[in-house]
Amino acid sequence: MSQEPEVIYRAAIAWLETRAASLSAGLLAEALALVPTIPPTLVGMPYCHACESVLCGACGICHGLSLVPPDFCPADQENMGTDCAAWWQAYHAVYTLMYQEARHE
């Protein structure tokens, strides 16, 4: 990543705010607060040994959310709660922006 994490975090927050109409106010607020807690690198992040998806930063288990295309993970317990959904929105915002930046470099 060529930009400082704070720059990516500000961009991720702005990106999430553009999605406000598709998220509940509480989920959006929680996701916005979580953006600065998302590590700016995947190196060292815990991951699922079954599907290699990043483990949820809220509960620590696999929800299989980063599988492309969406697929089934045998470790997914299908118990995603509100905290998990907010963490995923923050994670998705940060890594979407980082991916877009890398494509334009």
Q: Could you give a short description of this structure?
A:
The chain has 105 residues and is mostly helical. The protein contains three helices and no strands. α1 crosses α3 and α2 (25-34) packs across α3.
Defining key terms:
single chain, 105 residues, mainly alpha, 0% strand, globular
Q: What percentage of residues falls in helices of 4 or more residues?
A: 40-55%
Content-based structural category: mainly alpha
Per DSSP E runs of 2 or more residues, the count of β-strands stands at 0
Number of domains: 1
If you average the pLDDT, what whole number results?
Answer: 87
- How many helical elements? 3
- Would you list the SSEs in sequence order as H and E? HHH
Strand content: under 5%
Q: Strand count, sense and closure of the main sheet? A: none
Shape by Cα distribution: globular
Instruction: Report, as a whole number of angstroms, the end-to-end distance.
Output: 10 Å
Radius of gyration: 14 Å
- Poorly predicted runs are none
Description:
The protein is built from 3 helices and no strands. With 105 residues, the chain is mainly alpha-helical. The chain has one domain (5-104). Helix 1 packs across helix 3 and helix 2 (25-34) packs across helix 3. The chain starts with a helix and ends with a helix. The model has no long low-confidence stretch (mean pLDDT 87).
